[in-house]
Write a structure and sequence with these properties.
The structure is a single chain. By secondary structure, the chain is of the alpha/beta class. About 40% of the residues lie in helices and about 20% in strands. Strands 1-4-3-2-5-6 form a six-stranded parallel beta sheet, sandwiched between helices. Strands 7-8-9 form a three-stranded antiparallel beta sheet. It starts with a strand and ends in a 7-residue tail after the last helix. Bound molecules: adenosine monophosphate (AMP). Adenosine monophosphate binds near residues 30, 37, 146, 150 and 186. Adenosine monophosphate (AMP) binds next to helix 2 and strand 5.
């Protein structure tokens, strides 16, 4: 495995791989790798001859300096995981390399980047789209793997790559959860024991919302209300938003029966830590009591950071 620190070495490594007839997969990350990232890497390694992982905590996408400072970092452990997974190239640039001067260019994906995370974290998706555009531009033709865990990010990146005719196929991967349903996230490491226990409220909220949809509720606001009520019942959690949306463009439809697929989104704060989660709104359709089979189906992994 080769570890490269500069944009030009990264571009060169992937261009050389393609010249040798190798098909390239790319997994962009901010490091502190856990089993969720690993599932993306494993999928890419299974599908491509040459897999690159980028590890870069992108300051542009943090709207709060304290969040950036506290973001977990562990490059040695990340490199060990990448080597074990069969990654060929790790791109781990410093901030100076990615932003040698203040960029005057920024990528804004209108519409889909504006509600939900975009409304709560001003500038977040411009930061994401800008760094992903830089990564795609440096990587060249490839398939890029993104987690459904960050569903709005996936929609934003897909739309950007399509609008700008980037030679990148965006591949969506399912969310990996702890056995109790909490979606794996680098931020989970920042939760106290009590907050960690309370954090299952996001998954419980999503299951309750999907249960309401399975029982025939087609009013998005009614689904959002039952989801919000679950979060409100957890004293350590503070709701940011709960919503039932059209998965294609994240708009709230007049009726869920007009839309397929439906996505349920939830965000809540546990102490200082803000967590987000989402699921297929019809995950529980046809599951009898509206709970178990879909819950099992959505659990893809075990490990937790
Ligand atoms: P991050 O390092 O948080 O920027 O995440 C890098 C990639 O891993 C993103 O595409 C995330 O959506 C994805 N990811 C993060 N957590 C999970 C998870 N629990 N399951 C699947 N993918 C994930």
């Amino acid at each position: 495995m080769e570890v490269v620190r500069t944009v030009s070495a990264f571009t060169g490594a992937l261009a050389a791989a393609r010249r040798q007839g190798r098909d390239v997969g790319l997994v962009p990350t901010m490091g502190a790798l856990h089993a969720g990232h690993r599932s993306l890497i494993d999928r890419a390694v299974a599908a491509h001859d040459h897999v690159a992982v980028s590890i870069f905590v992108n300051p542009l996408q943090f709207d709060r300096a304290d969040d950036l400072d506290r973001y977990p970092r562990d490059l040695d452990a990340d490199l060990a995981q990448c080597a074990e997974a069969g990654v060929a190239t790790v791109f781990a640039p410093g901030v100076e390399e990615m932003y040698p001067r203040r960029p005057l260019t920024s990528v804004h994906v209108a519409g889909v980047s504006e509600p939900f995370e975009g409304a709560t974290r001003p500038g977040h998706f411009d930061g994401v789209a800008t760094v992903v555009a830089k990564l795609f531009s440096a990587a060249g033709t490839c398939a890029a793997y993104f987690g459904e865990k960050d569903f709005q990010q996936l929609v934003v990146v897909r739309r950007m790559a399509s609008d700008l005719s980037m030679p990148v196929r965006v591949v969506a991967c399912p969310t990996v959860r702890a056995p109790d349903g909490l979606a794996l996230s680098s931020r989970n490491a920042l939760l106290s024991d009590d907050e960690r226990r309370a954090a299952t409220v996001l998954w419980r909220s999503l299951r309750t919302g999907a249960g309401a949809v399975a029982e025939g509720e087609d009013r998005p606001d009614a689904v959002a209300r039952v989801m919000a009520a679950v979060v409100a019942a957890e004293p350590l959690a503070e709701l940011d938003y709960a919503a039932a949306v059209d998965a294609a463009d994240l708009h709230v439809p007049a009726s869920l029966s007009d839309v397929e697929p439906v996505r349920l989104l939830v965000a809540a704060r546990l102490g200082q830590v803000r967590l987000i989660d989402n699921c297929d709104g019809r995950a529980m359709a046809g599951s009898g009591d509206g709970r178990r089979p879909a819950a099992r189906r959505l659990v893809h992994g075990q490990g937790e950071r």
